[in-house]
Amino acid sequence: MTTALSRRALATALLAATLLTGCGGGGQGVRNEGSAGTAQGSEAGGESSAGREAPSSDPTNAARPLGRSVPVRLGIPSIGVDTPVMRLGLRTDGTVEVPPVTAHDQAGWYDKSPTPGRTGPSVLLGHVTVGDYGDGVFRHLSELHRGDHVTTRLKNGTTAAFTVTRVRTVDKADFPTQEVYGDTDRPELRLITCGGPRSGEGYRDNVIVFAALDGS
User: Fold this and answer.
1) Quick one: which of 3, 47, 83, 212 has the most CB atoms within 10 Å?
2) What's the whole-number mean pLDDT along residues 2-29?
């Protein structure tokens, strides 16, 4: 039986393919045609020195989930990010929306994932470069380290504060779909952009930041 969670995970797997063209070109979505990889081969793309993520099943590290409210702003002080957050969904043709390529681009929250602070992986994505405009909002995402802080301000006025647990750079062909979008038993955050060497009009890799909600 396909649960609501597994349907969400299948839909969000589209992001791996979307980011192939969405990080520095025209921002066009692409269809899901088996492009998402598995976690088994993801180490081929390398892993940063940020360390391994603490097990999500450890109740001593678990924070109480927040009420549902959409994110409106994202802050990552260590890399100078302070950006509005737009809402991203699925287009009518089955592709995932990406933020538009503009001079003052912003991050986007994928609305088929939980809102930040709810149990499960909340997914935000942004460009690493924005064509002729230069650097994107997530240009320095790969420079994050374990212990760095991320905040998301929510529409209801509350703030969900997260701590980075791991940073990975993976080949897009080996995108760890289950690891990124699979169910968790605590509130977590995923920040995703492109990285690595350029490949044609895009980039070869994805940079993935894993973070967990701070305890009270």
Assistant:
1) 212
2) 45
